[in-house]
Structures are given as C-alpha cells and as structure tokens.
Amino acid sequence: MSSLLLKTLTKKEEIDRIIRDTIDEVLVLRFGRCTDTVCLQHDDILAKSVTDVSKFAKVALVDVDSEDVQVYVKYFDITWFPSTVFFFNAHHMKLDSGTADHTKWVGAFHIKQDFIDVVEVIYRGAMKGKMIVQCPVPPERIPKYNLLYKDV
Amino acid sequence: MKEPSKKSEIEYCKVCRLHHDHGSRHKYFPRHKDLLSTFLDRFRTKIADVRFFLKNPSVLRPQEQSQNRVWCVFCDEDIVELGSSFACSKAINHFASSDHLKNVKQFLSKNGPAMDCIDDFRISEANVATWRRKCQSLGSEDASSFKGSCEQLSGTSNDIHNKLAFKTMDKIENVPAQLINSHHSSDVLPLQYNTNKYQISHSELPGVAHYGSYLNMDSSHLPLHTDPPSNLPGNGFGKHVIPSRSKDYPSSQDQERKQIKGSYSSPGEVGMTSISSSHSSDACGNVHSGAPPPWLDANDGNSSNVQLNQSDMSSSFQAKIPGNTRKLNPNRVGAAWAEKRKIEIEMEKRGQTMNSKVDAEWLPNFGRVWQSGTRKESRKEFEKEKRKLVKTESISTESEPVKIQPYISKRARRETGENGSG
C-alpha cells in the first residue's frame, strides 16, 4: 500500500536524479525490501507521514534486491534492512542516535511522530549548516543492532 | 482553655479561587483581603470603561458587538451586546438593574469588607436617564445617515444575500402596502427575503401576529415604547435579539420599519416571508432568464483592471519568491551546490541543453561508516575498493584453470630424468 504512495527506485540513475533534484529539502531514502515485515512497518509510517513533512522533505524507497542499486548498498555500508539515509542538497546528513552507525537510521520507527521529529531535526540542522544532528527519539524507541566490521 | 474552632462546611471562595472550611471567618484573612482588593479593582476598571460610554454614548457597529462584552462577576453572567445599537447599552442597563444591586450586596456581605463601596459597582438611575437622552439626541443626528447604518446592521459582509436584500428593501419601500396584500391569496409566494437565521428569528410565531397587524399601518403609527428591550412583548429571546422599538434607537427602528413593510407572513406560517414579485424581475434579468450574475456584470467594465491586478499579483508573488530564497541561510548545508543546481534547472527549463548527462560514476557526498577523515577521502577509498574488486574479478576470469597433478618427489624426478637421459 505504501508503495503506491511512495516512489520505489530500482536504478542508480533514478537515485542520482532524485538526489540531485531535491533542493533545499530533506531527502529520505529507505533501503529495504517491500516483502520484509519490518520494512513494511517502516514503510507504513513513512507513507503516513509523507504529507506532514511534504513541505520540507521528500521520501523515496529503494529496493535493495535490484542489481543496479548494489553500488549504493556498498557505498552506504548498508548491512541491515530497513536502513534510512538522509540527504540535504545532495549532502549526506548524519544522525547521532546513540548507536554505532551515525550515517543512517537502522530499523523501523515506532511512531509517526518519531519520524517527523527526526526529519525536522535534520532539516533544522541542515539549515544551520550542521552535517550531524542529535536524534530526538528517546533511547527506548531506537532499534538496537550489532554492527559487524568486515564480518567480524 | 481555648474553645476548639467550629468546623464549618467546605465552601468555595470566588475571590481566592479555592475551597476552604473557614466559614465566615474567611473574609477577614489577610490573603483574602489582598485578593479581594485586586478582584474589585479589576472590576472597577471594567465598569469605568462602561461609565465612559455612559458619558459619551456612541453607535455600536455589528462587527464590534462581539468585542463589546462584559462579564459581571457579581451576577456571574456575560453581558453580550447583541442587537444593541449603542456601545455598552446592555451593560449599562444591567448595572442599573435591581437584580445586579442585590447580587452586589450579597457579594459584599459574603466577601467584602464594607458596604460603602457599593456605589462603585452600579450605575444610578439618574445617570442612565441622562445617557438615554444623549442616545436619543445622537440617534436623531444619525437619522440622515441611516441607510449606511442600516447596511451595517443588516449584514457584516458585502455578500450577495445582503446586496440583493438591500436592493429589494429599497424597492419595497416604494411599493404600496396594497400590492403586498394582493399576493395574500396565492399559495406559493416567491422568496423575497433571505431566510437566514437572523431573519427567521424575527418572524417567529409570537412575533408574527405583530408583523401582520403592522402591515397596514403607516410608519408613523408604529408604537413607541420606552421599556427596556427585555420587556418587549412577543420577544422570546430575552436580551439577545430584536432591536428595541423605543425612541432611543431610531436607527434600528427604521430598519425594522423597512423589514415590517417588506415582510408578510400568514399566521401559522413560521419563518417564511415573501415579497411581491413585481419588483423582483429587474431589468437585468435573473437566474431563470439566464442573465449573468451581478458580480460579473460589475467586473465586465473592470476586466482590464482585473487583469492588471492579476499581473500585479503575479509580479508581487514573483517578488516574494526571490525574497524567500534570499531568506534561506547561505550557510546551510550544500548551499553552493543548491544554487548551482537551481541555475542548471532553470537553464534546462528555458531549453538550453546543458551537459545534463549525469556521470554514471557520480556519487553523492557521503561519510562512510568505517572511514575516518573527510568525505572526499571516503569516496576515494570507495572508488579504490571498487577498482580493486573489478581487477580481481577480471584476473579470476582471465587465468587458466590449474591442472592438479600428484606429487612427485625430487629423487623420483631425478631418477626419471637420469633414466630418460641415460
């Protein structure tokens, strides 16, 4: 259902285009599979919030099973699905949520408001020139995971 | 030995806004006395405002009616100036009433120190009488400009209902009463009066008989009452409706006169008024004849102005948009890139084909997880890794398959070699 509301990208060109065409707005790229349950939950939250953040953010889904997209999967060091990466004016925005990986949000958001808060904080930080922002979500609602370094 | 203090029931003190069981001693407590003085001072300022209007009566416009309201703390009621033509008229009448005086006395006996300040919170009858006389004189001055006030009183906005109603009201004035009567026999009468809530409330059943009887009367025969509005017969709404027919409110009276002239409703019919159809068919036509609506007619002559206005609007919007971008923080992330990209997009829109082909190898600015250092370095490293990966893949495809042979020791190889040579 959410795929009807959100654009699903399967090619590198499409991802490039959307990154380059999103100007002065936060771009939210979700890397995941539409069949995975956690991804589905995450997509549901994204789809519900897209209108609320439409004035300062754009949301798109990236299918990780597509071959064309693997270069980005490697470039962004994506090992867990769903992973959400944030961009602003083609610059990657980092989010310090207390986890090991600040470059992306791993897992699904618990509530709509958490997602909206994160996007808002990123927007505010980006407008001030900050490339890394503090995550406003309380720690109990941040998904935990173990990050492996080169499969160690 | 001291007597134990009497246990009284829990009461609520309006001044202190708390519950207490002090009973009648509560009003002597210093905290209560302080709060009471501020409480009464607040009310004194309110009543001073009302006294200002008592000395200087002024006409109250309908749009200001909702702002002109007073909460009477002694009677616990909100005095709203609905349907009154002079500012604070209802408030003045309330403060002069006997009910209010009773409530003030009760309040002071329960909470207050003494009864000597009672006159601060009420308006005497003499003052009210002088105010009424002033209103009357003010009203007679306004009679010449009554049309303007009528417009204001009849509606707040210049919407079509009021416009049409006003047009019809103008025409009704000229039509003699007999013509209106002639339509009495027809069952269905064309709608000549807008039936919004305000109008319907005017023609409620108790009031209907009055309207019917007034129809044949000349305006000069309209009864003049001097009672305050709440005592009007046939007025079932208390304070809030129908402007009074007393001499004090001649402007509203004139409005009523117009309404009465124009309206006819048979007894038993609630909320329906009709006007004769003779004036409803204007020279301009109506919806049924397919004539254009009046607002478009008005705009035909001003179409060029409208266009000009539109262009003005668009230019102002355009002026606004660069204003918006100017407000964007130049220090924001990717500002330079964003500006460059906007220019590129504009040029593409204009049709200038730029080298818009995005390099297939283009990657966004990304800080990788396991890299330290700048983002450029992380991109370089990624590209290095990619190249390595490509090389190893190519090497693996190009190499021949290795033959697997059993191990032959050196001695055996020497022996075979010697045997071969020897």
From TrEMBL, chain A:
Task: Give the primary localization class.
Answer: nucleus
Asked if the record carries the keyword Nucleus, the reply is: yes
Show the InterPro entries listed in the entry. Dim1 (IPR004123), Thioredoxin-like_sf (IPR036249)
User: Which compartment or compartments is the protein found in?
Assistant: Nucleus
Keyword Nucleus assigned: yes
Q: Which Pfam families match?
A: DIM1
Keywords, ordered alphabetically: mRNA processing, mRNA splicing, Nucleus
Q: Which family does it belong to?
A: Belongs to the DIM1 family.
Q: Can you name this protein?
A: Thioredoxin-like protein 4B
From TrEMBL, chain B:
What InterPro entries does UniProt report for this protein, alphabetically? CCDC84-like (IPR028015)
Chain intervals with Polar residues compositional bias: 273-283
Any matching Pfam family:
CCDC84
Query: Region annotation Disordered: residue ranges?
Result: 222-308, 373-422
Q: From which residue to which does any coiled coil extend?
A: none
- List the biased-composition ranges (Basic and acidic residues): 374-386
Q: What is this protein called in UniProt?
A: TITAN-like protein
Q: Which organism is it from?
A: Camelina sativa
